[in-house]
């Protein structure tokens, strides 16, 4: 909002008390008469009422690729910039009622919820519900047993409460937000090396699931540089003769896009030094042409003019056959999205003119745009175009880039009184079927993005202007391209500092790697949490034995979670399909793996518990219940980390991509620490080295069993 306010005119030249005076733009009211001139920011929405003409750059507002030429009766929008001319106007709207104000209002209300945030809440709720149910069951069972045994007292009650609280704390995935944030932050660091700045971490994760990418045309897919295409010759001997005449009728210092394109088309710009401009008549919307009078070093005088082809035809008055041919050419160029520019010359001081030729002009696609679009399509992303330019220009650009050409004019689709937050179903159907839109306003872009989000799509949006800001903020991943306005950059979640969209492919790949890391951690965390909770409760109910002390549960949580943060560096494969949170699949997979892990732990616990109670020989070499607790503590620590190797990919754990060295050695270091704790008796009763080795053998065997279950679940594709 602060960036948008910077774009508003601070002062205005207004007619008050019969004379013009300068006041703050905030004091303007509808009905005021004001003057606008070269270099000023238009202070309000205006209707032009007097003056010759004005050329106004409103590209930041509407997305048009060149400045709009205004005449009496036309409207000028607040926040646009006067490039040429001076006119009087009446104020027709101020504040939030202006085109600019409506855009700011949309930005204030825009914004989509992060899917990752929603997923974390769902996972947390799932685990907490299970934990509460199990805790209630365990409390009821313990209280019942104490009452029956007549041992219920305050100490027993506090012991039950203490253990239940520890169990509940262990059930909450407290490290999950940290793991998510660290993983996303490292992804942001990698993207910054590719000249993409992340201002909203969750947008990286969203990039993994985008299935629609709406891209602005001008300056994003195209170079934002008008370029001369083919030149049709009439009375010129070659193309450069037409270009020279057009260049003489241009002024490079005016920074006009058309003048710059014509002058840049000269193969040798030094040829202009041979000519002296005696008189220059700039373009205005009435005459729709420029004219120059010039002479060369030999004293030859000529007049040259360039402008709209129909105006040049009226000036030169060619034969009907020639004029018909020119009009037919103009229609053909327009149908393909090309602008036409006629050039004429007079050698007799303007008494007679001859048409030298007609230029075709086009904003060409960027060199990397087509390759980027093809790469995005290969990743399952449907790329569509939104532009403020004419429909024909948009269609031709799409054709050259290999995009769909079903481009709709926004005015034909969206009613003027439509609520952009609630797009009717019939219009949403048209939006979903279209390959893009032309002649769009900010509320159109915003409505398009929000309508597709309501249809279940994850939408990315690229843009650079104030008109893009509402849609950029609303999109799941709003991307401001290089050279974007402050408002667009402030609204966007991803800011590109290099021209074009080529970094989008890198961002999608990085996002999908991050998503795989987060998903593997999620499955691991849910499965391990369920294992601990069910093991404790089942043991308490059926064996009347507490397999873990409260301190063991706390230490185990630390040993499990701290090294797992290095999963942010893990090596993962890059999916060729869009990825999104499939909570049913994630929770089902993790729950099934958790149940198998519970079976794994319960078999060891029951067998060793019976061996200790009956005094028979224990395979693992333990002699009492305190050592059994240490056995189960180490078993869960080892099994937990081996489980991560299974969950980190959907194939055999020993296949590529291998774990990152940071993750692998963090787990090894943790396992060494856990083994030392159990061997030397740090905070837990000591067990032998043989017992520790046997625990590892047991868990490695089960690692293969759990991996087989994971492969079966993947093949079921539920």
Notes on the structure:
- An eight-stranded mixed beta sheet has the order 8-21-20-19-9-16-18-17, sandwiched between helices. Strands 1, 2, 3, 4, 5, 6 and 7 form a seven-stranded antiparallel beta sheet that branches. A six-stranded antiparallel beta sheet has the order 10-15-14-13-12-11, with helices on both faces.
- Helix 13 (369-378) packs parallel to helix 20 (502-543), helix 20 packs antiparallel against helix 23 and helix 23 runs parallel beside helix 25.
- The chain has 25 helices and 21 strands.
- It is an alpha/beta fold and 718 residues long.
- It folds into four domains: 10-97, Calcium-transporting ATPase, cytoplasmic transduction domain A (Distorted Sandwich); 174-188 and 512-717, Calcium-transporting ATPase, transmembrane domain; 196-223 and 365-507, Rossmann fold (3-Layer(aba) Sandwich), CATH 3.40.50; 227-362, Calcium-transporting ATPase, cytoplasmic domain N, CATH 3.40.1110.
- Helices cover 50% and strands 17% of the residues.
